[in-house]
Amino acid sequence: MNAPIGVLDSGVGGLSVLKEIKNILPNEHIIYFGDTANVPYGSKSPSQIRLFVFEILKYLKSQNVKAVVFACNTSSAVVLDKAQPCFDFPIIGVIKPGIKEALKVMKTEKAGLFANNVTVESGVHDKIMSEMSGGKHGVIGKACPDFVSLVEIGLTKGAEVERCVNKYFSAFDNVDLDTLILGCTHYPFLEEEIKKVCKDKITIINPAKETAKELAKILKENKLENKSENKESDIYCVSAEPEKFRNTASILLGRDIGEVKLVIF
After folding, report:
1. Could you tell me whether strands 203-205 and 179-182 are parallel, antiparallel, or unpaired per DSSP bridges?
2. pLDDT in tens, 69-116
3. Domains along the sequence of the chain with CATH
4. I want to staple 9 with a disulfide (CB 3.0 to 4.6 A). Which of 37, 64, 72, 126 is the partner?
C-alpha cells in the first residue's frame, strides 16, 4: 500500500525511530512531525500533551497516513490508549517493544530506565513490565531532563554529555541491575556516551529498533506494506522553527534533510 507512515515526536528525538524504520522498511514513505513549539513534552501536563498529540494526529490523518508511530515515550505513556479508538489506522508506541526486548536479556529483578519526568512519574514502564513478567520484574526510573536539551541542539558527544551521563547513572549506584532502557527517543543519540560510562556491565535497550520491528510486523499483518520501490522523499513537518529543526536533524541523521514544512494549529 503506497500511503505514508506518520511518525511524531516533540522534537528531533523521534528521528532515532525514523532512522530504524528506514533501515528495516526502506520502501516506506514517512511524514515526520516534530512538535517543536511544545518541546519538551516531559515538562508538560498529561492533558496538555493529549491536546498537542491529537492535533498532530488529525493533521496526519488529513495526509492519508496508513499507520502512525508515537516516536515519543511521553505520548506513548499518556496518549496512546486514548488515541487508538479515535482513529482508523494502527498507532504504535515505543514502550512495549522496548520492554519486551529488556525482558529477553535481563537477569536481575529490576531494569533501569532513563526517561523524562512525565514518563518516570507515570510509572507505565514498571506497570507494563510487571504485567508482562507476571510480577517477576519491574523498572526503576531516573528522570534525565538535560539529555533532551543536549540532543535538541545536536550535542551528542563530549565532556558535557559525559558529565550528564555520570550524574544520572549515580542514581543506580546501589541498585543491582544489568539492563537499562532508553525511555526517551532522544536518548539513542547519546547511546555511545552512555555505553562508555556503563562499559560492558549493563545492556542498553534502544526501543527505537524494537519499535521499527513491531511496525514492520503490523504492516505485514494488515497487508499495508509498500512492496514497490519508494521514490518519494520523506516529508518533515514542525510546529515552530523549521530552519533550526533542519540544521539539528541534518546533524543527527548525517545528511541534509531538505525543506522542512511549518504547520501551525
Report:
1. parallel
2. 999 988 998 899 999 999 999 999 999 999 999 999 999 999 999 998
3. 5-93+209-262 (3.40.50.1860), 95-207 (3.40.50.1860)
4. 72
Rg (CA), the chain: 18
Question: 3-state class of 194 per DSSP?
Answer: helix
Residue listed under C-alpha cell 534533510: 257
The confidence band for 230, taking pLDDT boundaries of 50, 70 and 90, is low
Q: In the prediction, which pLDDT does 263 show?
A: 97
pLDDT at 171 exceeding the cut of 70: yes
The reply to whether omega before 145 is within 30° of 0 (cis) is no
Q: Give the model's confidence band at 174: pLDDT under 50 very low, under 70 low, under 90 confident, else very high.
A: confident
CA distances for 162 relative to 70, 146, 188, 192, angstroms: 28, 12, 14, 10
Helix axes 15-24, 242-253, angle to 10 degrees: 50
Return phi, psi of residue 49, to 5°.
-60, -40
Q: What positions carry a catalytic annotation?
A: 72, 184
pLDDT in tens, 134-155: 999 999 999 998 998 898 888 9
Q: Measuring CA to CA, how many Å separate 255 from each of 166, 248, 250, 251?
A: 30, 10, 5, 7
Concatenated DSSP letters of 23-64: HH-TT--EEEEE-TTS--GGGS-HHHHHHHHHHHHHHHHHTT
